[in-house]
Amino acid sequence: MRTPGQAIVAQVRSIRRMCGAKGRGMNDKSDAFGPPRLSLWALFLKFLGFGLLAFGGPVAQIAMLRKVLVEQERWIAPGRFNRLLAVLQILPGPEAHELCVHLGMVARGRAGGIVAGLGFMVPGLVLMLAAGAAYTRWIEGNIGLAGLLLGVQIVVLAIILRAVVRIGQHVVEDGLLLCIALVGLASPLLGVPFYVPLASGGIAYAFAHRPILAIAILLTPVILAVALLPVGGSEQLRPQAIAHAAVTLPMLFVAGLKGGLLTFGGAYTAIPYVRADTVGRGWISDGAFLDGIALAGVLPAPLVIFATFTGYIVGGPAGALVITLGMFLPAFAFSLVFFERLEAVIANPALHHGLTGVAAAVVGIIAATFIQLAQATAMRVDHAWAAMALAGVALVLVWRVKGAWVTPAIVAGGAIAGWLFPF
User: What is the DSSP letter of 172?
Assistant: First the structure.
């Protein structure tokens, strides 16, 4: 059975294989490494170029950064890049964006980190703002497009399910982590606040060497939370059952910040928290929320840019910018604040185990969110057999076929299917 540290090494090796790191004849000691002298404007344009080509998700984005900045331009040594990647994969936040911030700091200090991070995220931000504007003006509420959008939402559910399994394979590697994930799955469905399984899962796995105590730590807070819920509390706390609440910019910022701080193991882990604070307050429908995830999957940007779309639908341009600020703030802050201490902090074994436990709880929470989204989508479906067939085809494709084009192709196929064969 692999330890969490070995799992991280395995992920790094997988990305190295994709990047073509093997057989390059480069190592930390071969030649001098260092970025060229760049102005802040030139640094911004360089990472803006990366952002314009950031299709295909984090693995493809990291591969692109490594090929250009490590293999071709030799900003840092391959070994240092791999260690940095291992550290960032443990921390919350989109790791490709965090890599850009860190490499920008290598070039021009903290100002360079801010400039590089902004450059990488600007293309996706601008495109998603445009998508949000087009959606609210021409698409939202258009009866003629209802079937098309429902087809997209069905295939996005298949993409999310595949992401749950993929993330779980990397995180859930022993019996205790499986228990933590199952508690994370059950908690939202019972109406337990998300932070209860996160905290209990992290603390429990820190005591993994004492299994009985760990199980007690895991279950006791959740049982107490369920016992303290009011009668019917689990129904009242489900996102689709909560009444409309007033939209405020601070609340949108907190929704984004919560997602940014709790994004462990991939951008899909931000989905439950943003959904709870937007769909859960009656600000946006589950269907529109799924449309935002679909758009994020086809744009050149970290997937968490779906929060920008959600913010736009809820609060216009100001809402989009505020929720985006909250979502990306941790990705900037971890590198900017802990630049010199990042690797030493994450090397702490106790912290390692705690973060692994939190990540396992997040896997369960995403699975619960998938169930809730699937239930909400099923309520809008008239022909269940056709919807299940489309979801099955999408699931087979996303499971078996690899490549940066797969997600955009599946989303486009879902749209065409929904247009031709209304569900």
Answer: -
Residue 236 predicted with pLDDT over 60: no
Residue 413 above 70 pLDDT?
yes
Stated as kind and residue range, the H or E segment containing 189 is helix 175-190
**Do 190 and 255 reside in the same domain of the chain?**
yes
Cα–chain center distance at 332? 16
Rounded to 10°, the helix 286-298/271-278 angle is 140
pLDDT of residue 32: 72
- Which single residue is written with the structure tokens 């982590």? 177
Q: Within this chain, do residues 257 and 344 fall inside the same structural domain, yes or no?
A: yes
193-227, pLDDT tens digit by residue? 888 998 999 999 999 989 999 999 999 998 988 88
Q: Which of these three, 97, 119, 141, is where a domain ends?
A: 119
Structure tokens, 54: 């950031």
Whether residue 19 is predicted with pLDDT greater than 70 in this model: the reply is no
Contact 252, 326 (CB under 8 A): yes
Q: Give the separation between CA 229 and CA 294, rounded to whole angstroms.
A: 35
Backbone torsions φ then ψ of 218, nearest 5 degrees: -70, -45
Torsion, CA 342, CA 270, CA 365, CA 242, rounded to 10: 140
For residue 10, give its domain range. 4-119
As a whole number, mean pLDDT of residues 354-361 equals: 86
Cβ(84)–Cβ(34) under 8 Å? Answer: no
- Positive or negative, the CA dihedral 370, 376, 379, 382 is negative
Does 378 share its domain with 309? yes
